[in-house]
Amino acid sequence: MKKLIYTMVLADEDNHIFATTGTLFFTIQLIIAVIYTFITSGSFLNIKLISILFVINLLLTFLEIFAIRFMMIHDFDNTAEPVEYKVDSYSLSKASGKEFYTIRTNKGVKVIDKDKVDVVHMEALTDDKRKIGTTEIKYAELKIPDGLPEYQSKILTKMLTQAKNPSMLMTFKYVKNEAKD
Fold first, then answer.
1. What is the structure's pLDDT at 181?
2. CA triplet 155, 59, 28: central angle to 5 degrees?
3. How do residues 87-122 score in pLDDT, each as one tens digit?
4. How far apart are CA 89 and CA 179, in angstroms?
5. Taking the CA atoms of the chain, what radius of gyration do you get in angstroms?
6. Is 4 exposed, middle or buried (0-12, 13-18, 19+ CB in 10 A)?
7. Contact criterion met (CB below 8 Å) for 140 and 170
8. What are phi and psi of 134, to 5 degrees?
9. For 124-177, how does the pLDDT look when each residue is reduced to its tens digit (9 = 90+)?
10. What does the buried/exposed string (b/e) look like for 59-82 if buried means 16 or more CB atoms within 10 Å of the residue's CB?
11. Where are the beta strands (DSSP E) in the chain?
12. Residue 159: helix, strand or coil by DSSP?
């Protein structure tokens, strides 16, 4: 079932809501209800039955949409893994009217759009005298692991690119752990 939903979303990204909802089902039921009311009562005035069918199908439609989105978000949360790097240096630069962070990590250089990085500055308490006054910089980003089925990998990768801040640049300034009165 999951593969079917992922395939439908992947195949028809713009209109997958209509493909997965009860729109066609609602139309068929509505036609049957109109024909039934016309045959049994001889008129189209039985709005009550049509209204009930409309409300039921509207609720089913929202439940289906909610279930599919919940499943996608749940899979993304369980699949995307944070990867952490130690940062040697970083700088903010401009190119073509956009701002980018150039981050030199222990795994190479990364150039990331400024809007996709959440920069956090924190003070870390420590009792280690060697660390007091030093600063440590780390970079973490979400990655979709290799080895996923293609239908799932494409959707989750697209969700990752649409995420507001899929990466974080963290600076830790170590300060003495003092009891505050």
1. 44
2. 90
3. 888 888 888 888 998 899 888 898 888 888 888 888
4. 32
5. 27
6. exposed
7. yes
8. -95, 165
9. 888 888 888 888 888 888 888 888 888 888 888 888 888 777 888 888 888 887
10. eebeeeeeebeeebeebbeebbee
11. 81-95, 98-105, 108-113, 117-126, 135-143, 167-176
12. helix
DSSP secondary structure letters along 99-127: EEEEEEETTEEEEEEGGGEEEEEEEEEE-
DSSP three-state, residue 162 = helix
Tell me the C-alpha distance between 83 and 73, whole Å.
19
Residue 80 identity? A
Residue 77 CA from chain centroid, whole number: 8
Query: Residue type for 121, please?
Result: H
pTM value surpassing 0.85: no
- Give the tokens for residue 89: 């240096």
Answer whether 171's CB lies under 8 Å from 122's CB.
yes
130: CB partners within 8 A, 6+ apart: none
Which amino acid is present at 28?
I
> Rounded CA gap, 138 and 170, in Å?
5
Six-digit token string for 157: 């990768």
Which residues are paired to 60 by β-bridges? none
Structure tokens at 102: 């150039």
- What token pair was written down for 130? 């060697």
Q: In angstroms, how far is the first alpha carbon of the chain from the final one?
A: 59
